[in-house]
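$ ./design --mode recover --in tokens.txt
reading tokens...
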């Protein structure tokens, strides 16, 4: 076996600490000679400890699988965190499959066995309960754990060595005794030496003293080395912890816990209490939670409004500036949406023995809060004091709606509707239901505040209906829809009354019809529309009914979301304008005024953007909340979304977060496609989309520097250190936009006049050389001297060249042919070539599949057997073989210092491969294929543009520092990003972690993580 043991553990701080300590203890353990002789083993050879956490849902890597296959024992670090780890569970299951259960050892570091041992360790193959062999190093603190580790560690070493625990324990005691005797002897020797020094000083004594001094120096060096090793291990521990906390921060942010996400990200960065290394992922997590590079296009998590216990219901105030919530202890909270602050909290009041605590409706004006209990309506001030009460204990109140502009409200009981003066809290008018039916808990003011509608219910065998109250006319009128049970009713944008109806509201009674009736306020039926929909979930019949104007001309529509179907119906014609399907059952709806767009929430926790004119569901703009959504509201006045998950103590507030440091620059007159950024950062190039062959050059402030119109038939463009190049079938133009100079190389002047035209062009990294190919000929060109270096015709018969590349020193060319069986390396000076027996992945436009490193030391080839091979240019030997199975949507290249390979696979994941150590150093997930990169060596960063967004990566640890949506320029000159808002260029500065921390403290000045949350998030 290659490894004596494989250590499996959860990547949390304590688990990692023990795993590293155990790793070192096993590999450095000196087996006692007597045990060596009996066990036939001189030392514990190698122990494997994986450094990286496995992403949830991922399979084990080949490296881990191979290590498990080659390991004799599996050691599992067990704590209450362990059973939650996908990585540990998969490693245990794989080891059992490859070997057996008998070679699994456990280490208890915290918690109890029942909560800390993964399930596979507690049962055998037949499902019977077993108890694994375990070492127990649990302790109340690090000192107690370390003390127990010294002997408990031997329980793990013994089976690996092939002896018993008692053998090692006995030898351990003997070793301690011998050490104590040695220490005593050294002390006695020291006394003797001092006696000699003060007695007779001779040459022998001097020699002994020198020897002791040398031993002391050696011991000091060993201690220094040990201290360095401890510091390095501590640094690696801090890095791993920071990465763990960064991922935790991003998870919290996705779950809507933005404040905690920011605080956890700050814990992962250097601060006044902990001088830890700067980890890119932590800076990235903090920038994401702060919306550091957001233009404010879409809604994102902002705050959570925390309650004493689970929230029972929520209400949006009439003016949309406040949210009122009631928890299950009947506490009433009033929140300011704009500031996210708690304005007041009103505890339950003792309203008398005959008064119950059910709350049907709450609303708030600028000065007062109104709460409708079962038997009364109470007006409070914002200090929670009762101002006045409207009450009639003979009646049961069911609903209220408020008109603060006219200082009045409709209050409905089971039999009467009152128009109430909110100053006096006395009824101005009252209306009794003309039928024998009781009003139910749904009633609304009309948009113009002239009428009031309210549902009523009769015996279950009779129809249901609604009443229209007109206080100006002093009338109340009952309406009974034909053969209908009313599920929902609402005023429309035009002031009509829309009813969502079914033939019954009981599935058991044969629910087979869903339709909408539209009534005028005089009670006339305007139209009835049947809808084709199915009951897809009998346990949760959900629906939302609304209406809005969708044009400035006054066109209005009725919108119905029923279960997971959405209908937009023209109010005038009753025609269905669109229909669509939602991802899951609807739980809330917001309709934009004077717009075709809407947002709908689902029970599964998604907030979906829909174009009601076409029925298009824009899934790319949907918001994934990673929780359920029980209630959903939108405040157009404060531009905020609010939602309540099931059984939650928190209401989530979402808003738009435009970058505070954004600077608006030029408004462009054209539509452009980004081409690249100059390596110096002095300018960037945009191509006119309409004309295709016009290139405009801008500086970092959005000023147009130069414009160049190329001839038609563009082959390639390249933005190099010294100029921007445009190659066509007839010429190469070298453009310096700063000097406004253009140098043109006409190909025919150099004898380059192929009948087929130029089929491909590739430029060296510094722009001094380029290589072109036409059918079977390769042309190498010196762009500095304006000199043709080589015209070489390939030897392959009946074949053509597929692609080519040239080294930065202009000495080597790579090329392949379309049908060839080998890959060609051409020496320009001698016009000779060598070949290797590998082929690129694709033979079409295959210059994408090979390239030189900037220093010319290597060239890389994406081979058709699924490997990227790295060759030494000096002798064409293979320096590395890297699995790199790609097809089309990929990218590969070298970093500016030529020490790393950048590998982007078809799934858009980007990895960094260290050439010297032949290991991956980091990776990130991009959204699209990389188009170009910008190196910022002075600041140890590089930027990646993927056609839509920009990623800024640290070249110290190759982690992502920043993600800038919509950005196409990173300028290293002033470390800034440029993006577009429509056609307006917007500039944003890069902010490192120090600036982000200042911003976080400004937004959350007194916020700290509680001790409970520190434990919850595994923060030491």
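writing sequence...
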């Amino acid at each position: 076996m290659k490894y004596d043991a494989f250590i499996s553990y959860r990547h949390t701080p304590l688990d990692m600490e023990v795993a590293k300590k155990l790793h070192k203890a096993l590999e450095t353990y000196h087996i006692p000679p007597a045990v060596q002789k009996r066990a036939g083993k001189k030392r514990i050879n190698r122990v494997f400890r994986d450094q990286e956490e496995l992403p949830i849902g991922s399979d084990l890597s080949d490296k881990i699988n191979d290590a498990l296959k080659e390991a004799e024992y599996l050691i599992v670090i067990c704590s209450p965190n362990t059973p939650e780890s996908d990585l540990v569970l998969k490693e245990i299951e794989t080891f059992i499959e490859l070997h057996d259960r008998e070679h699994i050892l456990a280490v208890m570091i915290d918690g109890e066995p029942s909560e800390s041992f993964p399930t596979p360790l507690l049962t055998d193959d037949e499902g019977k309960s077993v108890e694994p062999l375990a070492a127990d190093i649990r302790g109340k603190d690090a000192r107690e754990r370390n003390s127990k580790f010294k002997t408990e560690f031997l329980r793990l070493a013994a089976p690996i060595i092939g002896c018993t625990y008692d053998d090692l324990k006995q030898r351990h005691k003997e070793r301690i005794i011998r050490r104590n005797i040695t220490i005593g002897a050294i002390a006695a020797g020291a006394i003797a030496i001092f006696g000699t020094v003060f007695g007779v000083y001779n040459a022998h004594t001097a020699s002994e003293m020198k020897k002791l001094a040398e031993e002391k120096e050696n011991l000091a060096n060993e201690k220094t080395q040990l201290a360095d090793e401890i510091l390095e291990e501590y640094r690696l521990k801090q890095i791993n912890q920071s990465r763990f906390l960064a991922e935790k921060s991003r998870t919290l942010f996705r779950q809507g816990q933005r404040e905690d996400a920011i605080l956890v990200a700050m814990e992962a960065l250097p601060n006044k209490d902990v001088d830890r290394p700067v980890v890119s992922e932590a800076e990235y997590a903090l920038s994401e939670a702060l919306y550091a590079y957001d233009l404010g296009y879409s809604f994102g998590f902002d705050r959570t409004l925390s309650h004493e216990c689970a929230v029972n219901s929520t209400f949006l105030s009439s003016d949309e500036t406040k949210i009122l919530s009631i928890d299950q202890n009947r506490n009433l909270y009033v929140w300011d949406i704009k500031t996210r602050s708690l304005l007041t909290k009103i505890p339950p009041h003792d309203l008398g023995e005959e008064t119950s605590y059910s709350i049907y409706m709450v609303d708030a004006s600028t000065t007062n809060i109104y709460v409708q209990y079962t038997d009364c309506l109470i007006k409070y001030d914002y200090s929670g004091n009762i101002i006045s009460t409207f009450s009639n204990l003979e009646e049961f109140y069911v609903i209220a709606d408020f008109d603060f502009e006219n200082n009045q409200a409709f209050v409905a009981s089971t039999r009467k509707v009152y128009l109430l003066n909110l100053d006096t809290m006395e009824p101005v008018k009252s209306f009794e239901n003309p039928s024998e039916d009781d009003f139910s808990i749904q009633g609304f003011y009309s948009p113009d505040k002239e009428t009031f509608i309210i549902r009523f219910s009769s015996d279950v065998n009779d129809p249901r209906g609604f009443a229209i109250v007109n206080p100006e006319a002093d009338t109340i009128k009952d309406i009974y829809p034909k053969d209908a049970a009313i599920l929902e009713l609402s005023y429309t944008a035009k002031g009509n009354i829309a009813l969502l109806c079914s033939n019954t509201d009981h599935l058991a009674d044969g629910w087979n019809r869903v339709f909408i009736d539209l009534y005028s306020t005089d009670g006339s039926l305007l139209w009835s529309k049947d809808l084709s929909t199915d009951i897809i979930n009998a346990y949760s019949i959900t629906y939302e009914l609304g209406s809005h104007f969708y044009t400035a001309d006054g066109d209005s529509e009725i919108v119905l979301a029923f279960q997971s179907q959405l209908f937009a119906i023209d109010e005038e014609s009753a025609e269905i304008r669109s229909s669509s399907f939602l991802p899951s059952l609807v739980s809330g709806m917001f309709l934009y005024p004077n717009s075709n767009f809407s947002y709908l929430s689902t029970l599964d926790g998604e907030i979906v953007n829909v174009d009601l004119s076409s029925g298009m569901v824009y899934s790319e703009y949907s918001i994934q909340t990673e929780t359920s959504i029980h209630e959903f509201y939108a405040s157009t006045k404060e531009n905020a979304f609010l939602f309540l998950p099931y059984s939650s103590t928190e209401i989530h507030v979402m808003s738009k977060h435009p970058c505070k440091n954004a600077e608006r620059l030029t408004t462009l007159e054209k539509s452009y496609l980004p081409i690249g950024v100059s390596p110096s950062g002095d300018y960037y190039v945009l191509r006119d989309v309409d004309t295709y062959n016009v290139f405009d050059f801008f500086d970092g402030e959005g000023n147009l520097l130069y414009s160049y119109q190329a001839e038609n038939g563009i082959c390639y463009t390249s933005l190099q250190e010294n100029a921007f190049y445009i190659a066509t079938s007839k010429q190469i133009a070298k453009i310096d936009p700063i000097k406004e100079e253009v140098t043109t190389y006409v190909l025919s002047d150099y004898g380059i006049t192929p009948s087929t035209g130029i089929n491909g062009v590739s430029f060296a990294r510094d722009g001094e050389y380029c290589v072109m190919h036409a059918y079977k000929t390769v042309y190498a060109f010196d762009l500095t001297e304006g000199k043709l270096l080589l015209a070489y015709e390939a030897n392959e018969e009946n074949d053509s060249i597929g692609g080519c590349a040239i080294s930065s020193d202009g000495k080597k060319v790579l090329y392949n042919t379309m049908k060839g069986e080998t890959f060609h390396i051409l020496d320009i000076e001698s016009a000779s070539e060598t070949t290797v027996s590998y082929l690129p992945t694709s033979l079409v436009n295959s210059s994408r599949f090979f390239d030189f490193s900037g220093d010319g030391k290597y060239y890389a080839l994406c081979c058709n057997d699924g490997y990227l091979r790295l060759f030494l240019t000096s002798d064409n030997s293979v320096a590395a073989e890297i699995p790199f199975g790609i097809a089309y949507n990929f990218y590969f290249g070298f970093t500016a210092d030529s020490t790393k390979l950048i590998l982007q696979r078809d799934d858009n994941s980007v990895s960094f491969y260290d050439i010297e150590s032949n290991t991956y150093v980091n990776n990130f997930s991009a959204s699209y294929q990389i188009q170009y990169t910008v190196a910022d060596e002075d600041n140890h960063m590089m930027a990646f543009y993927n056609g839509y967004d920009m990623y800024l990566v640290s070249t110290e640890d190759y982690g992502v520092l920043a993600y800038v949506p919509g950005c196409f320029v990173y300028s290293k000159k002033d470390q800034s990003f440029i993006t577009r808002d429509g056609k307006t260029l917007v500039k944003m500065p890069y902010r490192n972690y120090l600036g982000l921390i200042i911003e976080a403290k400004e937004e959350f000045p007194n916020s700290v993580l509680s001790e409970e949350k520190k434990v919850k998030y595994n923060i030491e």
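exit 0
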